[in-house]
Amino acid sequence: MEFKSEINDDVCDASVDGELTIYHVNDFKKALEKSIKHASTIKLDLSNVSEIDTSCFQLLMQARTSCLENEKEFELVSISPAIREVMDIFGLERHFGNFDNMAAN
């Protein structure tokens, strides 16, 4: 997993490449927490995620909830087919938005 982020004008544009599995959950959590701490808007691009498991999906949901509770914005700007598959299986679209018109890799 590679997490990249850049903060401009209180907006964090972040992206993840590779796998998001239990083996990466601690690093992913630290990176998300840092982004949330230093920005009021988080825009996360997951279009290059090759695999995701429930531990990292729970972390995404927790990050979104934390942002909402602290009056911050959390947005998934793009998702990969692997992310889409998990969202479809577990009915998570209601938490993150509709990605039907979004081009995924």
What report would you give on this structure?
Strands 1-2-3-4 form a four-stranded mixed beta sheet, covered by helices on one side. It has a single domain (2-96), classed as STAS domain (Transcription Regulator spoIIAA, 2-Layer Sandwich). It starts with a strand and ends in a 9-residue tail after the last helix. It contains four helices and four strands, in the order E-E-H-E-H-E-H-H. Strand 3, helix 2 and strand 4 (73-79) form a beta-alpha-beta unit. It has 105 residues and is α/β, with parallel strands linked by helices.
Give the neighbour order of strands across the main sheet: 1-2-3-4
Number of DSSP strands? 4
Number of domains: 1
In the predicted model, the low-confidence regions spanning at least 5 consecutive residues are: 101-105
The CATH level-2 architecture is identified as 2-Layer Sandwich
Largest sheet, in brief, is: 4 strands, mixed
Query: Whole-Å distance between the termini?
Result: 17 Å
- What number is the mean pLDDT? 89
Any key phrases for this structure?
single chain; 105 residues; alpha/beta; Transcription Regulator spoIIAA; 4-stranded mixed beta sheet; 4 helices; 42% helix; globular; disordered C terminus
Could you give a short description of this structure?
This protein has 105 residues and is an alpha/beta fold. Helix content is 42%, strand content 34%.
